[in-house]
Amino acid sequence: MTLIIDLEGRRIVGKVLAQLVSEQVKSADEPAYCVRNAAVLGDLALPRELDGRSITLEECSVGGSLSVVAEAPRSLSLKQVWVLGTVIIQVERLEMLYVSGCVVSNGLFFDSRGANRWRMENSTVYARGVPVAIGAQQLAAGSVSFVGCRFEGRVDLARAVLTTSLSLQNCKLHSSEGDALTAEGLRAGGIVGISVTHSIGSVRLSSLAADAVQIDGEFYGGPDDWALHLQNMRIVNGLNTGPRFATRGRIDVSGAAFGGSVEFEGARLDGRGRHALSLQSTTIKGNLFMRNDFKSFGALNLSNAVVEGNLEIGNAVCRGSAYDPASHDSPTVAVSARGLSARKIGLGPGSTFVGAVDL
Q1: 15 in helix, strand or coil?
Q2: Dmax of the chain from CA atoms?
Q3: Distances in Å between the alpha carbon of 51 and those of 19, 62, 206?
Q4: Which of 84, 123, 254, 336 qualifies as a cystine partner to 280, CB 3.0-4.6 A?
Q5: Is 191 exposed, middle or buried (0-12, 13-18, 19+ CB in 10 A)?
Q6: CA 156 to CA 85: how far, in whole Å?
Q7: Taking the alpha carbons of 5, 11, 13, 16 in that order, is the dihedral positive or negative?
């Protein structure tokens, strides 16, 4: 049973609301509580008495910051909550963190050593007074999913450990200061899926370990012109891009290892006058495919890559870039593949290479 505390739109000081919730927990001893229609003045720190129970904030506004610091609440749900400050969630264990239809002005920080599931949908988080929009470094959780969210500031999931999956679906990422998303060193027992409407700022998945990687959407590089950092990944199966995959900025997959195939089918790459894609020293147990209207504006660097299956560049356009952009006399190279090893190399049919193909 859920005990509903309905403030009917009344204003209430955060400390007073926290005391009210604490008293209700002690007297009613219900497994779940819902605070609804509250206009909270100042900060709101939910009481520690919520350990072992579920708490929901619904259609509330918080004039300051919202914090939940507890040992092991059962679940926390934020539904249509506006927070003018920062959201801080620090719990040892949590079955479910659910955030829907919320707006947070100064970042959301989630720290847990044993969260089962984190789902966030149709929400907007800004980083107006803090360095990141989402801060969850070294998070230990089951699965993390963001659906239809907008993040104005870096999403930081570096070194998180997930027993299953990480999923971003139809999200908008924007960072004016470098990385829009960093999941460097993240470990996932399942699939890492990154699908964005657009990402302005680089996406950093270097040293990622996962079962498989799926990437789709439009990626615009940061100030350093790198759109995707995928170097040194260790992927049990493979990597594939979706039908909307396009970049304006370079992609670095150098030194990565894949147990399956790598597929850039129909991808549109723009290296901004530099190498568009680097697979240097990458190991691929399966095939490497760049086909089906694949387009690259910038060289493909496949030097010293090991492809145990087939390499196929078919029905593609590869417009090269200067081998050395700093030199005015540098030759144009479409494909640089010295030291490449593959079972079979197929360049065509229907492919156009503008620049040298160096095998």
Answers
A1: helix
A2: 81
A3: 15, 22, 37
A4: 254
A5: middle
A6: 18
A7: negative
Residue 226 bridge partners (DSSP): 250
Residue with tokens 């396009």: 246
From CA 296, how far away is CA 259, in angstroms rounded? 25
Q: What is the dihedral of CA 15, 20, 23, 24, to 10 degrees?
A: -140
How many Å apart are CA 282 and CA 303, to the nearest integer?
9
Q: Tens place of pLDDT for every residue, the chain, 359 residues?
A: 889 999 999 999 999 999 999 999 888 888 999 999 999 999 999 988 888 999 999 999 999 999 999 888 999 999 999 999 999 999 999 999 999 999 999 999 999 988 999 999 999 999 988 889 999 988 999 999 999 999 999 999 999 999 999 999 999 999 988 899 999 999 999 999 999 999 999 999 999 999 999 999 999 988 778 999 999 999 999 999 999 999 999 999 999 999 999 999 999 999 988 899 999 999 999 999 999 999 999 999 999 999 999 999 999 999 987 655 555 555 689 999 999 999 999 998 889 999 999 88
Tokens of residue 186, six digits? 């993240």
Q: How many Å apart are CA 223 and CA 132, to the nearest integer?
A: 17
